[in-house]
Write a structure and sequence with these properties.
The complex is a heterodimer of chains A (329) and B (338). Chain A is α+β, with helices and mostly antiparallel strands. In chain A, strands 4-5-6-9-11-12 form a 6-stranded mixed β-sheet. A 3-stranded antiparallel β-sheet of chain A has the order 1-3-2, with helices on one face. Chain A is globular, with a radius of gyration of 22 Å. Chain B is 31% helix and 21% strand. In chain B, a hairpin with a 7-residue loop joins strand 11 and strand 12. Classes of the chains: A alpha+beta (329), B alpha+beta (338). Bound molecules: iron/sulfur cluster (SF4) (5 copies). The site of one iron/sulfur cluster (SF4) has 12 residues of chain A, from loops.
Chain lengths: 329, 338
């Protein structure tokens, strides 16, 4: 059998363990899937695969055990899926009959957000779709995730770009009955940003992370929701070298800033990626170029409002597997 | 013939504009984005300028009582030698509200004006300014049980209003400042009040208080209630408040005395000097509230405190239904007697 493995992988298919057998990855931006698409996934798995799908950690479907010779036929069957999940949200794809145009930039994942979750500070699905529109199709290996609140159910801290919703709580003192539910709760589950002074509540804005717990707990709506903002954490990763949690980059950033940074990231990668390698993951590029250059590139032409706070360095928590990489003789 | 007036929206807005010269006009409106959860709205009270702002299709989450019984009210400012009351707004207060809400104001009046030896001065001062505009209830809402509580119809209002086929229809008992007749076209208007609710509540008439106290249901409610106080703050007939003396941080010789709503479900409500606290457990607090609403108040004033608006059911985050609790007490009473 003769196949161009690079082309095949770029098309969303895997070079798998079993000879001559592949596996198709179907991206589901934001993990949001109209169920009318399930029969098509079922049909592909039953007709060409082994009747199973694997649910990936990135909210995609993998349909295993497909012979390579069926790729072209299946690609042509995918157009309703790609149409609904990609083209409809604004992703530009020239030929829908050829399957996925790229696979390096991974599916944008999102927690269920305020479609369901009471903690959610915003609509995560909508942002995930808007990000997908900007970054797909693209080849660089980039992982982006969106989560509705600092609980981070979707683990954005393990991503190159992790987006966490923030809400600015607004206090109307005349509505406050001094029950202190907000104060106690902020201490218990969040950052202890609230204190009770002269029978009214004070918020230390520098400690507040915008989780919205105070709004949820206030019986009188003395706390209500102001603007929606985003905390961006970056360059979290797993892998064989140096797993680490993403580090804080921006806080209280506007939606447009989030989208622009996602777009700029690709210019940065394009300029600084090491093309001698088969692929280079963006986190390692940042390790090489340093934070300041990264920062200058991704913030190019970005309007940062006075409200937004910018990290002066990346405060990573992680470790390296191979100590010899760090301690050379 | 029921005297009334018909307005198109332009005419009603002229009416409002002119009413506002001498009154603050409050109504339930859609507070965009002010719901507890993100991207949700809240129906609450605020001043209005146009009739289109008024939400007729939903029950307000908070009750109208905050418009004349403020959540926080400064009674006076003080320094070492002197105290002074804040100036009172000269304008009257017009409130759009529903039939049950008016009964609830009558309950507040009993507690605040008839309970002690003298009427509550601060309450009375604002209450005397209030006039009611009743919003007709066409079908009621899911949690309402006004019919069971006998609060579904009222004649204690200046005017009514409902929206029908592009017009606002008002039955008018008091033509405030002569403005209804000035801007409206005279027609007969019979206000609509609901005659039946989804929720039917049978208030037990002869509760055996000892048996009630021992009833295991309070333990169940105690394990469910989180003492958040939402049921109290949304209730139009809850009247409790606490006093707060505030000494300004910059100059503790000056300050103010405020009163602020209180809730019998929240920690600290019954805290006494010396650290005693009655009804510590949440089930006991629930029992206290329920009995006050459907028994104790009536013993003193002859009417039930609860007016069946159902807001407590709508607001409880733990899905504790007050109306179902009352029915459970009633059912047990029937079982015992039967
Ligand atoms: S991250 Fe927050 S908003 Fe998202 S599902 Fe978890 S708790 Fe809900
Ligand atoms: S938003 Fe969260 S961190 Fe900020 S004050 Fe409210 S509870 Fe505390
Ligand atoms: S929860 Fe609301 S009412 Fe209670 S102290 Fe906080 S702001 Fe005031
Ligand atoms: S107890 Fe509940 S139903 Fe009764 S008046 Fe109060 S809020 Fe309305
Ligand atoms: S609203 Fe529900 S949980 Fe909160 S105090 Fe009332 S009964 Fe308890």
């Amino acid at each position: 059998m003769n196949i161009n493995t690079k082309k095949v992988m770029k098309n969303g298919w895997r070079i798998a363990k079993d000879r001559n057998i592949t596996c198709l990855r179907i991206r589901v931006p934001g993990g949001y899937l109209p169920v009318k698409l399930l029969p098509l996934i079922q049909e592909i798995a039953q007709r060409f695969g082994n009747g199973t799908v694997h649910l990936t950690t990135r909210q995609s479907f993998e349909i295993p055990a497909i012979p390579f010779e069926n790729m072209t036929e299946i690609n042509s069957m995918l157009s309703p899926l790609i149409e609904e999940l990609e083209v409809k949200i604004g992703v530009k794809i020239d030929d829908l009959s050829k399957g996925y145009p790229s696979a390096g930039t991974r599916n944008v994942v999102a927690c269920i957000g305020n479609k369901v979750c009471s903690n959610a500070v915003f609509n995560t699905t909508a942002l995930a779709k808007d990000i997908e529109k900007i970054i797909y199709p693209n080849n660089p290996h980039v992982k982006i995730a969106v989560t509705g609140c600092p609980n981070d159910c979707v683990k954005v801290h393990m991503h190159d770009i992790g987006i966490i919703g923030q809400v600015e709580p607004i206090y109307e003192a005349s509505r406050c009955i001094g029950c202190q539910a907000c104060v106690k709760n902020c201490h218990k589950v969040s950052t202890g940003a609230l204190s009770f002074v002269n029978n009214k509540v004070k918020r230390d804005a520098s400690r507040c992370i915008g989780c919205g717990e105070c709004v949820l707990k206030c019986p009188t709506a003395a706390w209500t929701r102001g603007g929606q903002y985003y905390r961006i954490v970056i360059m979290g990763r797993t892998g064989k070298k140096n797993p680490r949690l993403a580090a804080g980059f921006l806080e209280w950033a506007e939606r447009e800033v989030v989208l622009k940074i996602c777009a700029n990231l690709y210019n940065y990668i394009d300029q600084y990626i090491d093309r001698s390698l088969p692929k280079e993951h963006v986190g390692y590029i940042v390790d090489r170029t340093g934070f300041n250059l990264f920062k200058a590139e991704v913030l190019r032409d970005v309007n940062i409002s006075p409200k937004t706070k910018l990290a002066s360095y990346l405060d990573f928590a992680g470790y390296t597997y191979d100590k010899n990489v760090v301690y050379k003789n | 013939m029921k005297l009334g007036y018909k307005f198109n929206s332009e005419a009603f807005n002229m009416l409002l504009e002119n009413l506002k010269k001498k009154h603050r006009v409050y109504a339930p409106i859609l507070l965009k984005g002010k719901g507890k959860f993100s991207d949700t709205d809240l129906v609450g009270y605020d001043e209005i300028s146009r009739i289109e702002e008024v939400v007729f299709t939903h029950k307000s989450y908070f009750s109208p009582k905050e418009t004349f019984h403020p959540i926080t009210q400064t009674l006076f400012y003080f320094n070492e030698n002197d105290y002074r009351e804040p100036a009172v707004d000269e304008k009257g207060i017009l409130v759009f509200l529903r039939s049950c809400d008016i009964y609830a104001v009558e309950r507040l009046d009993k507690i605040m004006l008839e309970n002690g030896t003298t009427p509550d001065y601060y309450y009375e001062r604002l209450r005397n300014k209030v006039k009611f505009i009743v919003m007709d209830c066409q079908d009621g809402f899911e949690s309402c049980f006004c019919v069971s509580m006998g609060t579904n119809k009222t004649e204690n209002y200046s005017a009514t209003v409902r929206y029908e086929n592009g017009f606002y229809l008002s039955n008018v008992l008091e033509d405030i400042d002569g403005l209804f007749s000035l801007y409206g076209e005279q027609v007969e208007v019979i206000p609509h009040f609901v005659e039946a609710n989804n929720q039917i509540v049978n208030v037990p008439q002869n509760l055996n208080l000892e048996a009630i106290t021992e009833n295991p249901i309070w333990e169940e409610y105690g394990s469910r209630c989180i003492a958040c106080g939402r049921c109290n703050v949304v209730c139009p007939s809850c009247s409790c408040f606490t006093m707060q003396d505030i000494f300004y941080e910059d100059n503790p010789n000056c300050g103010e005395r405020r009163r602020v709503w209180a809730s019998c479900h929240i920690d600290g409500f019954t805290d006494m000097a010396g650290g005693h606290s009655f009804r510590r457990n949440n089930g006991e607090r629930m029992r206290f509230k329920v009995l006050h609403k459907i028994s104790d108040f009536k013993k003193r004033f002859g009417v039930q405190m609860c007016v069946g608006c159902g807001r407590c059911d709508d607001a409880c985050p733990e899905y504790i239904s007050f109306s179902q609790c009352v029915n459970r007490l009633g059912e047990e009473e029937v079982e015992k007697r039967g």
